[in-house]
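Input sequence (170 aa), recorded before submission:
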Amino acid sequence: MLELLKYTLPALVVFATAFFLIKALLGKEEKKMKLDVFLNNQKAITPIRLQAYERLIILLERIHPESLVIRENQPDMTNQQLHQVLLGMIRGEFEHNLSQQLYVTPQAWMLIKAAKESLVQLVNSEALQLVPTDSSINLSKAIIEAHMQDKQSGHAKAIAFLKEEVQSLF
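Predicted structure, token format:
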């Protein structure tokens, strides 16, 4: 029995040492491979995320009340026609960029949705106060003036938040 222990005990010690060393080495290799995969994914995803932030800033700028009214108002339009065109443009621009929510944080997307909804509410409330058959200039003025009075516009908040998020990526 003692003779058997003389051979098996050193063999077990060698086996245990080799087992734990190999296990540690394989663990390090696995972590290294996971890090490589993560870094390669980041190289692919970062440009896409930046592009999403750019597109969302463009969305917010395109549906900004002043640029929207200036771009869409025609001299021969009525308040009702301009109202419908503005709502259609806002919804169209928003729907065109729905997929960008995959690449931004939920907070950023909520701010973008809130900016869109506040603009729709602004356009609707100003349109309700005017005669539908009057010239669209009246609605244009009312929307721009109401937006200028809003010190904490949803657009400004959303743009500032998107810029902060992009800064935090680097």
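Checked by second reader. The two ends are 67 Å apart (CA to CA).
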